[in-house]
Hints:
By secondary structure, the chain is mainly beta. Strand 1 and strand 2 form a beta hairpin.
Amino acid sequence: MNCHQVDYQIVGHDIQMVEVELDPGETVIAEAGAMTYIEQDIDFETKMGDGSGGVMDKLFGIGKRMLTGESVFLTHFTNKGKQKRRAAFSAPYPGSVIALNLAELGEQVICQRSAFLAAAFGTKVDIAFNKRLGSGFFGGEGFILQRLRGDGMAFVHAGGTVIRKDLRNETLRLDTGCLVAFSGDIDYNIALSGGLKSMLFGGEGLFLATMKGTGSVWVQSMPFSRLAEQVIGHLPPVGDQG
Length: 242
């Protein structure tokens, strides 16, 4: 797919950002609002979609993003100068930035909704629907997924600590919110977490994501939904002046 070959550096430990180095003429695309800073000579322009494909492909992709509530706009950052310049991007909440070399991952990675942060120009950012619609409706966070396709670098963000699990014709079960991304020949589904007693009193939720096959799975320790629940649970009641 001939994506721009950008260099990068991940900065920080607990609250990370990625600094992308752009040669003259190189471009990186990012979700709106992800930019932290840009050096001189870097111009940015907000466009509909990732800039790939023909008119019909763009319209179809925009329609899918609108249907799922995702922003139809991506920001394109281009080095218009004559020397290397840098642009940095960060996640909207504490966590880790994961660098994905799509060329080494079969040129395709599926990630959670809103996990996408930035990617080299030429990367196709699309919405991937789970073939099992019931899984999404009942599993909550598993229905809407993003598909990243290309042969360059892409960056996604996750909450807390991230671990990569490499499966070799194996099965991995995990909390639906803890799934960040997966690659390779992985079959993804959502199933009941266990018996009625476990579902009601076990505290693990009603459903678990089940990953089967050969490929890599990235897991996050603190999804934003879990973080938000903890924060809200410690807020004082409305009207409490204490």
